[in-house]
């Protein structure tokens, strides 16, 4: 009982206060009606589920992935589900020229852009890291660098629409994870880059929201194949995960945690980081930087 009073109750209070103060507007599916949305990695898994949700909500979508054939099927289904329009452009996110051209083309197809959902990822089987330097480079290029290229190319359109970027990441982008070192590194990089960019946007009054989506294990075919027989954790449903990403992004949340364990959300909240970030920002002489 003493333990309860001393630790558990204060922790619970902080937790509830955090939730109370970070709660935003209520989500309504109409918020996506007629919105112009890009989804990458949309041929399967969470990306495909996001495309279907967006279609049901009446959004315009431009989808990308490597497989033309798979994308074509997703587009057809999106149109059946009620998408305002649905297009696809197949290509490889290892090719940065493609990444740039894709955003420009997508913008032309929809006549602008409201939401950029960055979701594609390099598939790497679980295993100890030995000497495969090439996998590190490819993970950084596909999982990180292409996200930067896509965002920067889309930024003029997003500034105009006061739009949003969703950066799909992972718990492995917040805490270390054995057997997926290159993946984890690339997901950590997303946090460093996009969280810094978000605070620059705040200073420069760029009204483009960035939502970092921190996902636990989700029951996509790829994740199930990779973890089968190796990892014993619970896998959350991809349909619900996809919806949570859309909700958090349209509500302009900074971060979104999707994991079955309440503890993940609570423990990763990291108030220490927020305090240090606040203090660091205060120490910068902004007037010496802005306008240079
Ligand atoms: C930023 O844009 C959103 C969406 O249009 C709007 O709701 C919000 O008030 C804007 N914020 C600022 C600080 O202008």
UniProtKB/TrEMBL annotation:
Keywords: Endoplasmic reticulum, Membrane, NADP, Oxidoreductase, Transmembrane, Transmembrane helix
Membrane topology qualifier: Single-pass type II membrane protein
GO cellular-component term (any): endoplasmic reticulum membrane
Superkingdom as given in the UniProt entry: Eukaryota
PROSITE patterns registered for this protein in UniProt: ADH_SHORT (PS00061)
First-tier enzyme category under EC: oxidoreductase
GO MF entry, a single one: 7-beta-hydroxysteroid dehydrogenase (NADP+) activity
EC number: 1.1.1.146, 1.1.1.201
Keyword Kinase: no
Major subcellular location class: endoplasmic reticulum
Transmembrane spans: 7-22
Catalytic activity: 3beta,7alpha-dihydroxyandrost-5-en-17-one + NADP(+) = 3beta-hydroxy-5-androstene-7,17-dione + NADPH + H(+); 7-oxopregnenolone + NADPH + H(+) = 7beta-hydroxypregnenolone + NADP(+); 3beta-hydroxy-5-androstene-7,17-dione + NADPH + H(+) = 3beta,7beta-dihydroxyandrost-5-en-17-one + NADP(+); 3beta-hydroxy-5alpha-androstane-7,17-dione + NADPH + H(+) = 3beta,7beta-dihydroxy-5alpha-androstan-17-one + NADP(+)
Gene Ontology BP term (one): steroid catabolic process
Subcellular location per the Swiss-Prot or TrEMBL entry: Endoplasmic reticulum membrane
Subunit structure: Homodimer.
Family stated for the protein in its record: Belongs to the short-chain dehydrogenases/reductases (SDR) family.
PANTHER family with a match to the protein in the record: 11-BETA-HYDROXYSTEROID DEHYDROGENASE 1, HYDROXYSTEROID (11-BETA) DEHYDROGENASE 1-LIKE B-RELATED
Name of this protein: 11-beta-hydroxysteroid dehydrogenase 1
Originating species: Octodon degus (Degu)
């Amino acid at each position: 009982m003493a333990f309860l009073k001393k630790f558990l109750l204060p922790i619970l209070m902080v937790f509830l206060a955090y939730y109370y103060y970070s709660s935003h507007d209520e989500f309504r599916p109409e918020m996506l009606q007629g919105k112009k949305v890009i989804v990458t990695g949309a041929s399967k898994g969470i990306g495909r589920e996001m495309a279907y949700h967006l279609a049901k909500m009446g959004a315009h979508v431009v989808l990308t992935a490597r497989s033309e054939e798979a994308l074509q099927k997703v587009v057809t289904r999106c149109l059946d589900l009620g998408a305002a329009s649905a297009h696809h452009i197949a290509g490889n996110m290892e090719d940065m020229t493609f990444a740039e051209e894709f955003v420009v083309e997508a913008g032309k197809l929809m006549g602008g852009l409201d939401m950029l959902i960055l979701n594609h990822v390099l598939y790497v089987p679980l295993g100890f890291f030995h000497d495969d330097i090439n996998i590190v480079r490819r993970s950084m290029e596909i999982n990180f660098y292409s996200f930067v290229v896509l965002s920067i190319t889309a930024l003029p359109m997003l500034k105009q629409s006061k739009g949003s970027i969703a950066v799909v990441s992972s718990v492995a982008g917040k805490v270390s994870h054995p057997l997926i070192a290159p993946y984890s590194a690339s997901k950590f990089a997303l946090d460093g880059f996009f969280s810094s960019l978000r605070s620059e946007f705040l200073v420069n009054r760029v009204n483009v929201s960035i939502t970092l989506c921190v996902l636990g294990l989700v029951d996509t075919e790829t994740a199930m194949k990779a973890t089968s027989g190796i990892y014993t954790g619970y896998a959350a449903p991809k349909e619900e995960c996809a919806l949570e990403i859309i909700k958090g992004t349209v509500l302009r949340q900074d971060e979104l945690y999707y994991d079955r364990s309440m503890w993940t959300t609570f423990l990763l909240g990291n108030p220490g980081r927020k305090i240090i970030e606040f203090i660091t920002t205060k120490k910068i002489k902004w007037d010496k930087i802005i306008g240079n």
